[in-house]
Design a protein that fits this description.
Rossmann fold; globular; disordered C terminus; ATP-binding; disordered N terminus; alpha/beta; EC 2.7.7.62
Length: 189
Amino acid sequence: MAQERGTAARLTLVLGGARSGKSAHAEGLIEALPGPWRYVATAQGYDEEMRARIALHRARRSGPWETVDAPRDLAGALAAVPPGRPVLVDCLTLWLTNAMLAGADLAAETDALVAACAEAAGPLVLVSNEVGLGIVPDNALARRFRDEAGRLHQRLAAVADRVVLMVAGLPLAVKGEGPGAARATGEGR
């Protein structure tokens, strides 16, 4: 994807379904900026399949990437970023899962995350799974997760400069414009 080097929204939220291209797109947005870049990972490799996914993500990144694992304290990881450093967080729905399974106060954690994003001293790209487009889940935990993810996305989209929805590898601008956010009408492609 062609992007203008050195141009970025301060806060970009990249949403999409499984294998929609959201992580690769977000990496491209960050790599269009001068490095070094920080990758804040929320995944935990509890099984072989997840460890393979994590390894695939790491192998895809080249250049001056620094990875910080933050499966739970995402607000703290963002607060620790040096001023001006471009940051990619992948992904918010894994962070939400970790918080829910830990029995965390989701309202307080979300407030802290939104505040940390608002205070970020450099370009910040957040990746998350859009899980609210499918059928209603058949159990209470899954329905709560879907609802909490939707609320989290709404809070972050409200403060984001740019929101991109990835569909079949194509970035669709939902809010804002700029590199990597093609209009849904197909303009700019």
